[in-house]
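Repro:
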Amino acid sequence: MGEAKRNRRKVVVIGAGALVLLLVAAYFLAINITKITGKTIDEGFGDANPCFAAKKVILYGAEGCSQCVEQKRLIRDNLNSITYVDCDTDISACSHLDRVPAWEVNNKVIFGVLSPSELTSFVEC
C-alpha cells in the first residue's frame, strides 16, 4: 500500500507541475499576443459613444504618423462620435499641440495612443 500511495502522490505532483507550466505558457502568450499576431483583443467602449459625442471629444492626428494610424484603428467603430482633426491639413487647429496623437476634452489635452479603457477614463464616460 505504501508504494501505491507514493505513485499516486507522484502522479498528482507531475500533473500539478504540468498545469502550472501550461498556465505560465498561456500567461506569456497572452502578454505577447499583440507582438506575435499584430492583433489586439478589443476592449470595447461599451455605451461610451453618446458620452463621447456629448463631451465633444477631439482626436488630433496626422496621416503620416504611425501612432495616429494605430489610434484610429483602435477606435475605428467610434469615429462617428469623436471629432478627428488632421493636423496635416488643418495646421491652425493643431497649433497648441507639440505632438500627435493628442486627445482633447474640456480644454484638457493628453498625448499618445490610448486604449479604450484609458480613453473612457480620460473623458470620464
